[in-house]
Fold:
Amino acid sequence: MTSIQPGPESGSTPPLRPARPAPKSVQPSWAGALRQELFASRTDGLVSVLLIMVILAAAVGLLRWALGQAQWAVIQANTTLFAIGRYPIQQQWRLWLLVVLVAALSGVSWGLLRAFPRADRSGEIWPFNDRLAVALLGFLAAWLPAALALGLPLQLRWWVITALLVATRWLAGHWGRSWPPRLVKLVPMSWPLLYLFGMVLIAGGLGLPRVPPSEWGGLLLTLLMASFAILLSFPIGVVVALGRRSSLPLLRWASVLYIEFIRGAPLITLLFLGQNILGYMLPGGWAPDRVWRAAWVLTFFCGAYLAEAVRAGLSAVPPGQLEAARSLGLSMPQALQRVVLPQALRIALPGAVGQFISLLQDTTLLSLIGLLDLLGTARTVMANPEFLGKNAEVYLTLAVLFWCCCAALGLGSRALERRLDPTHSPA
Amino acid sequence: MQPSPRWLLALPLLLAFTLSGCADDSGSGGGVQSMKLSTIRGRDKLVCGVDGKLPGFSFLGPDGTYSGLDADTCRAVAAAVLGDPAKVEYRDLNSSERFAALASGEVDMLARNTTMTLSRDSAGGNGITFGPTTFYDGQGVMVPVASGAKTLKDLDGKPICVESGTTTELNLADRMREQGIAYTPLKFQTGDQTYAAYLGGRCVAVTSDRSQLAAKRSSFPNPDEHILLPEVMSKEPLTPASVNGDPAWADAMRWTVFALFQAEELGITKANVATKVAEAKANKNLADLRRFLGVEGDFGKQLGLPADFVPKAIAAVGNYGELFERNVGSGSPLKLERAENRLWTQGGLIYSPPFR
Structure:
């Protein structure tokens, strides 16, 4: 497994490390590095000064607009719409419960990750990044609800939820090692359970009144669609990628057909197809709700692209790996599961995450088929005569929201890559 | 490939269900047969296709409820059919999927600023059935007051901003050619770009549907500095619609909307409808009013609707005048003139056939 990967990896890691253990002498070397980077020659200096001035001017202009001219009432008045759409107010406690559960489980998982570092990594319980993240969370909890002009009870809830996240992180980080191993093993398995439970909480069932998908909206719908498509497209992608490399002609051709059909049509076409054709194919009440139709189209779309990313990973694993595993007596599924796929998926991870991020952004297309995802909500809010012409405020907010979601995905995947990277030597 | 006997057994059962559905319907509707009406009653909800993103016509308020002229039309129909204006499920539809959604039965009716045209109405075209027009729109031209332009002729040789690839662009070209006015069209891909160019002074006029111009104007920094020219370059009768092939349902929708027109003519408002009903009940001489409000006669039954469908609809949204002023007229930020949308008694086009 070490014939391809380590070359570039080990080449790129060493220069990173010497920079870290020298925080004391940061000031001079920083300035020196800056001078070297920006003002090495006269032309360099001129270009740098010009660029810095342009960037500063743009930043000042944006800030002046955001703090002075912009009227943020359009966001403040519609926070509920942007967050959850038309979700009925009597049932909102279900979403709060879900947020509380997610916060608690995130805190526990985060703490345990630090309490049980991989054997070859440093075992710091509160590394710098984590302290930074907690500070950021605290700032957000204090500032955001106030900036959105939420009522005091709502502000309190967000404070409590943030406190819960930090507290569980602290507890699990400090005492996770002394917890019974069975409990610790339960934590990663509880995520899929929580996802299913969250679906029930959102949609209803098990004695809870049903909330039809047409009443979901805003960030809730966007995240739900994206997470549903991401989770389901992954197995589809793996199966289809294996199918495409299979020696069974029927399986191979079916996979090729599926991938090429999906990749041959723009997503918006497929979404329209899903919305319009299904109504004719199935009688009135039988077609799945349009929200689910869109969710499945997104899933199959993402699955096809993911299959190609996984196939790239599979191609990068030398055939000798499979042959060696087979000659050791592993069955084909065993060899795939234990030897080939772990390596292939690790290689495919960056590409797959890129696909996931673009999928998250593609959910904005749902607004074109009349669903109230984040962009759809934004468009209906901008159609409210009271808030006409407040497009800049709304779009800027959307951009920031999407950036946060995508950044979270990117950061998570990078952490995962680091954790899975077998060549990263102990720090 | 022989059909399984169990499936055959289910067939009469299915038939019985269908028949019992019809029997249900005739119970409340006096022999009026309408699949759609019984479907709507069965699910106890009217599914109404709206745009959802059009100022003044349909949009979501901060509390998650739909507002606007189109949304209120749905509400009135729900109140007439089901007795409760809240029993509406709105479906945001874009312009390309609206007719498919209606034809496939996903929505019961459209109140989605749809222009009534021959090809949409005809069985050989989109094959839908239009109700009464609820808003007479048309393409207009907006100019800054400071430009001094009073009619289209004053725009001779001037640049006009227009969104490219729209019927608006074609209409402008047609009308200007007819009148022999030379002009320079400045074309833009999106509405935002078009109005930004207009505000930036790159053209002396901008053209679009008059309701849209007014909506945009209300978002300008100084709305009073812009006026709409009197010329109307196209006819855009925005009309609610239902599916072809269910005339009873189309009638029910049509006469509910007419009732809102008639209510304005009779001076019945959301506020006084209850007292008017009491008045009609007390005074046997007010025959017209008694029939209109369902105190006597069987208008409701003839349509397959409850007897009190008219007062229910008025109580839900008010008469047409109230509907207009609240959503797009003086009571809204859009401040549209009634213009063609006045009652026929005041020189407008809003006219209800007699309730007789």
